[in-house]
Amino acid sequence: MADAPKTKAPKPTDGKANRRGAARLAAVQALYQMDIAGAGINDIFAEFESHWLGNEVEGDEYLPAEAAFFRDVVSGVVRDQGKIDPVLDEALTRGWPLKRIEAILRATLRAGAYELSHRKDIPARVVIKEYVDVAHAFVEADEAGMVNAVLDQIARQFRTDEFAKG
Prior knowledge:
It is a single chain. This protein is mainly alpha-helical. Helices cover about 65% and strands about 0% of the residues. It has seven helices and two strands; from the N terminus they run ααββααααα. The chain has helices at about 15-35, 40-50, 65-90, 105-120, 125-135, 140-160, 160-165, and strands at about 55, 60. Helix 1 crosses helix 4 (about 105-120) and helix 5 packs antiparallel against helix 6. The protein is globular.
């Protein structure tokens, strides 16, 4: 299996928001690994839940993650990728289809788009900020800015009511 990309591991703290943030980071890493190595979802769940979530890996300590949230994001992206990818292609700048975007950014965008379209219990601005933070763990500021712009556009498509309030 492909190694997950190196990240700047956040410092361990408690709290539901931090466990969800850790789950998002792990979900993006899992989706990346599935994309690059062709790993299956059951293998990914077993590997991440036994070796990554809340453990130290290669000297980096990972926060305890909300396993159910991790599973929801990963399985939701896998299940709905055929619907998510065209939405992302539409939101990306012309000439840059999703397949031309770096694998880690594809994973980040897919996870963010899934949450924006399916997890209405989480405010859109929170979802966008969280995935921009995840992107910062892997890429430079310009690419994280692209994640912000694309997810903002998708949020305005799926959550018009949240943005109409001002």
